[in-house]
Design goal:
2 domains; single chain; mainly alpha; 8% strand; 165 residues; two-stranded antiparallel ribbon; Butyryl-Coa Dehydrogenase, subunit A, domain 1
């Protein structure tokens, strides 16, 4: 990625991500499939290169890129034959923290996420009567004074085993 605030072009993103992905050939992915494993080395390489912190603003240690650049990163991962399913949440789940978190929460968590010290990959969508139909989700957050009360049921929290938060 561009150093010291330099911008990076879409072609540079594509080439850099493609180069990183080339270090993880088909056999790497087939072996993970055989043992139902998680691609720790691949996710670590993406994190170390800064790609999973693409959407985190620079003041919190991220790249400060925008959504089109994040889409390019995931597109190139998938185009290479790798799996963005293993890492896409790291890029997008923290958007909730960016939009709704307090400044203290952002300063505490975003630099750790950007550096790879902390992974934030878990997200809960699936409900007993809705499955993945997000329009049918019944979980609700209702304001109660200075806080919220969340009611609902989730039957699966995706990537919980790979998430620190």
């Amino acid at each position: 990625m561009g150093e010291g605030g330099e911008s990076i072009t879409h072609d540079e993103i594509r080439h850099a991500v493609r180069d990183l992905c080339s270090r993880f050939p088909g056999e790497y992915w087939r072996e993970l499939d055989r043992r139902a494993g998680y691609p720790e080395e691949f996710v670590g390489a993406l994190t170390n290169a800064g790609w999973l912190a693409a959407l985190i603003p620079t003041e919190y240690g991220g790249a400060g890129l925008q959504l089109p650049e994040a889409c390019l990163i995931l597109e190139e991962i998938n185009h290479s034959g790798a799996s963005s399913a293993a890492c896409h949440a790291q890029m997008y789940v923290m958007g909730t923290l960016l939009r709704h978190g307090s400044e203290e929460q952002k300063r505490r968590h975003l630099p750790a996420i950007a550096s790879g010290e902390v992974r934030l990959q878990a997200f809960g969508v699936t409900e007993p009567d809705a499955g993945l139909d997000t329009a049918a989700i019944r979980t609700r957050a209702r304001r109660q004074g200075d806080s919220y009360r969340i009611t609902g049921n989730k039957i699966w929290i995706s990537r919980a085993q790979q998430s620190d938060l």
